[in-house]
Each structure stands twice: as C-alpha cells, then as structure tokens.
C-alpha cells in the first residue's frame, strides 16, 4: 500500500470526521432533531428529482468506492480549499488501453447498479471498457462544505461540477498509466444528461462521445409545457375519461375552496388543521403537490402504469373524491397532510445543517435554471392554482431576497447564453427522449437530430437490450451501440 494512498485515506477520514462532529455539535447546540417530517410539496419535488431507475443486477459485480480530492472553487486560484468527491469504479473488463465509460451523477446519490448492469454496462463489456460513476458536488456523500447555507452554496454550480469532471478525467488517467491514451465516453440521464452535452461544449478535447438521455437544454423559469405533457400521457395511455376525471376533480376542489366549502375540501384531502385556505401560498402549495403526484406517475411510467392508475381514479363515484384519495395515497397516507407553505420554508431552512438533497437542487433552480412546472397553461388538466410565483417566492424565502423574480429570470437567461440553449453546438453526442417525457419540450427533438422513443418517458432507455423493448426502443439502443463503435474506432 503506497504512502500516497495512506496519506489520502487519512486526510479523507479526518475531514469526514470533522464534518460529522461539527454537525453533531450544531444539532446539540441548536436543539434540532436529526430527522424531520417532510411537507408534501418538498416530498413530491424530491420524487421528481430522484436518480434514473436502478438497473436489475443479475450477477455479482465488484464495484469499488473511491475518492478524489477536488478544489472547492475551480475558478479561483487564490482559494486553496479542497473537498473529497466520491466515485464508483468497476474495472472488471479492464485491459491495456481500455476506453473509459463514465456515467455522470446528477442531483442524487450515486449507486452501483448503473455500472453493474444495463445498456451502458453492456457497451463497456463489448469494448473492454472501465466503468466509472462520478458523484456531483453537494449530493450524496460529496458534500464540500460543513453546512448548506446560502453562502456555502455559492460553490454549487454546473460550471463547478463540469470542471470537477474535467479534473477527474485528467487525474484518473494520470493515476492509471495504462489508460493514459484511452478514449473517454460520457453518459447521463436528466440533469446529468444536460451535463454530458455541456461538457462536450466546454471540454471537447477530453471526451470522444456522449449519450444524453432526457436532457433539458433550455433554461426556462415558467416551464408550462411540463404539465401539458403529463396530461397528454394520461390522455394517450389512459383515456379521455381519465383525463376528464382529473380535470373535473381538481376544478371541483378549487371551486369548493372558493365557495365556502373549504372545511369539506380540507376533510376530503385530510389536511392538517393548521392549513389556511385563505392563504394563497398554502393553496398554491396544496395544488402544486396534487399535480406533482400525477407528474411523478407520468415521469417514471412503465408499460401499464397509467392504465392502472386511471382504473383506480375511475373506480370512484365522483371526481373530487377520486382526486382526494389518489393524492392521499401519493403523499404516503400520513395521519394528516401538511401542505402549508411555511412548513416547506421551514424544511428547507432545517436542511442547511442536515444535508437534505432537496435544498441544493432547489438552489440550483433559483440560481441557474428555473424549470418551475407551473399551472400557467390551459392545455393541462391540473387546474390554475400553482403559478410561477409559488416557486420564485420560495427562492427568496429560503435562500435570499436577492432571488427576486427578475433575478431568477436573469439567471436562467445567463445559463442559456453560457451553454447555447437549444443550440449547444456539439458533435458526437447522441440525444434521446421519451415521446411522453414531460421534460422533452426543453430538449432537442427529431428536427434537431434527437431520437424520440414512442410512449416512453424520462430516462427509460438505460436497460439492456431486451425482448420487452418496443421496436423504437430497440432501434435507439442499437443506434447508440453503432455510434459507440464509431467513436472508439
């Protein structure tokens, strides 16, 4: 065992011990509990930003957990602070000069199945590649600061994360001389698919090709198209009756609150007594959370899912009761439903010291992207009660008053300037979307050269080629395999 490895190991252990002790001290001094009930708006947003579906691992695979020292600020030479970034390594196919297959982590904790099974794993096996899964700063265990205060979150930005990946590639090759001249391929899903595209734009010489599944490219604050596609999924895969039940049930609940039947609606939805139906922010939080139950179902739907849930919705005698019961199930059937806006703010403030992954991602939306899935379009069945103002107000209340509506829009506009929006100007990146992926309106379509997979949704194409694949799904996977062969030729 080398002195360099031991030094790195003890440095990493000491750093993590200090962080743990500091967190414990904060908890004792401030009297904060180590766990906290999650308000339904936070819970439903977290569900929409979990990692890509885990792959089914069919054999024992030795995936190693590794760490690399990264700069806290990649763009300030005077700042010498560092942090430990985690990555997972599977070198079972490695040979001299193996290509490096990197799966990029996004706003989630990395896990071993993504480099132990699935299409990316199969391609690495075909080409005797080394598989790596990198963890994004501020997510999982790759947390570079002792708290997630707004001041500390200034080091959380996609440009910093992309620079981390660039440094990782250079360091990984330096530490493995047999891979010094290896070609590098990137893959990612959702936000990390966006990172694949943007990495190729910023660091084209470090990567030879990339696969971006479900990549949103255009930053947009009022992302009204999202709920439109969710509605289309229930219409196309369910039925007109199902779509109408959703639309009519939510409209009826809105009407009950507006026409002095709020007590009845609160009872149907099992809301906690503290909910205030005269408070716009509480109402917006409630109806945003209801819509997000349907969004989560559509975003991750597999064959038969929406048909099943539509049958459930249509089993009730009236529209409002169907929506209330579906929402209660989707919220996890608590003793009472906490849909208060103030609880959402309190939760995100609590997460300053308890490293909840919902807080850093929400910060990124305020600071870089927007992507607020609002009720601003009439071409969706989820009502009118969760406007953009819900999400922009939350930015200011959780992080800083500097996040005004004007500033958030300016931040999103700057992201589009930095990365080209719908015109990222990259080569050798294969982009795929499910045709019923609610995120697809923010990414490339067929006209721009992307592949749309019929009836599929978000990040649905990472599994191995299978007899269960549709013709379109199989064709897309085979096309990627052809491109990988070209990139590695």
Strand coverage percent: 5-15%
CATH class of the largest domain: Alpha Beta
Spans of 5+ residues with little confidence (pLDDT < 50)? 1-9, 11-34
Strand order of the largest sheet: 1-2-4-3-5-6-9-10
Radius of gyration: 23 Å
The major pleated sheet works out as: 8 strands, mixed
Number of strands: 10
List keywords for this structure.
alpha/beta; Rossmann fold; Four Helix Bundle (Hemerythrin (Met), subunit A); 2 domains; 8-stranded mixed beta sheet; two-stranded parallel ribbon; 16 helices; about 10% strand; globular
Overview of the molecule:
This protein is an alpha/beta fold and about 500 residues long. It folds into two domains: about 50-215 and about 425-489, Rossmann fold (3-Layer(aba) Sandwich); about 220-415, Serine carboxypeptidase S28, SKS domain (Four Helix Bundle (Hemerythrin (Met), subunit A)). The protein has 16 helices and ten strands. It has helices at about 5-30, 40-50, 120-125, 160-175, 190-200, 225-240, 240-260, 260-270, 280-300, 305-315, 320-330, 340-355, 360-370, 390-400, 405-420, 470-489; strands at about 65-70, 80-90, 100-105, 130-135, 185-190, 210-215, 220, 370, 430-435, 450-455. It starts with a helix and ends with a helix.
């Amino acid at each position: 065992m080398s002195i360099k490895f031991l030094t790195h190991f003890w440095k990493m252990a000491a750093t993590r011990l200090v962080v743990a002790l500091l967190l414990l001290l904060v908890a004792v001094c401030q009297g904060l509990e180590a766990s906290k009930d999650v308000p339904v708006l936070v819970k439903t947003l977290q569900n929409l930003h979990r990692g890509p579906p885990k792959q089914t691992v069919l054999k024992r695979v030795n995936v190693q957990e590794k760490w690399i020292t990264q700069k806290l600020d990649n763009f300030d030479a005077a700042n010498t602070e560092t942090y430990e970034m985690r990555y997972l390594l599977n070198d079972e196919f490695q040979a001299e000069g193996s290509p490096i297959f990197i799966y990029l982590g996004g706003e989630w904790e990395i896990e071993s199945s993504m480099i132990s099974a699935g299409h990316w794993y199969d391609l690495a096996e075909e080409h005797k590649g080394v598989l790596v899964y990198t963890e994004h700063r501020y997510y999982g265990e790759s947390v570079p600061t002792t708290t997630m205060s707004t001041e500390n979150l200034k080091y959380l930005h996609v440009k910093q994360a992309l620079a981390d990946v660039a440094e990782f590639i250079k360091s990984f090759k330096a530490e493995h001389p047999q891979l010094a001249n290896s070609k590098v391929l990137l893959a990612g899903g959702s936000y990390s698919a966006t990172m694949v595209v943007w990495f190729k734009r910023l660091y084209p010489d470090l990567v030879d090709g990339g696969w971006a599944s479900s990549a949103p490219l255009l930053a947009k604050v009022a992302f009204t198209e999202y709920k439109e596609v969710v509605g289309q999924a229930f219409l196309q895969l369910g039925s007109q009756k199902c779509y109408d039940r959703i639309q009519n049930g939510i409209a009826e609940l809105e009407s009950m609150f507006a026409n002095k039947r709020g007590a009845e609606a609160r009872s149907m939805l099992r809301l906690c007594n503290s909910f205030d139906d005269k408070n716009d922010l509480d109402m917006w939080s409630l109806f945003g959370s209801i819509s997000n139950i349907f969004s989560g179902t559509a975003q991750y739907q597999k064959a038969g899912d929406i048909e099943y849930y539509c049958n459930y919705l249509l089993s009730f005698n009236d529209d409002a009761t169907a929506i209330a019961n579906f929402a209660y199930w989707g919220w996890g059937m608590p003793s009472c439903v906490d849909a208060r806006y103030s609880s959402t703010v309190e939760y995100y403030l609590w997460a300053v010291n308890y490293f909840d992954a919902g807080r850093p991602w929400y910060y990124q939306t305020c600071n870089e992207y927007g992507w607020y899935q609002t009720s601003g379009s009439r071409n969706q069945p989820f009502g009118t009660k969760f406007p953009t103002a819900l999400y922009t107000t939350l930015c200011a209340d959780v992080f800083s008053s500097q996040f005004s509506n004007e500033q958030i829009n300016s931040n999103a506009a700057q992201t589009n300037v930095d990365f080209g929006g719908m015109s990222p100007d990259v080569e050798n990146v294969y982009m795929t979307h499910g045709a019923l992926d609610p995120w697809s309106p923010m990414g490339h379509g067929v006209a721009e050269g992307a592949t749309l997979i019929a009836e599929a949704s978000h990040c649905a194409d990472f599994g191995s080629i299978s007899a269960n694949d549709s013709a379109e799904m199989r064709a897309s996977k085979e096309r990627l395999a052809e491109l990988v062969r070209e990139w590695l030729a």
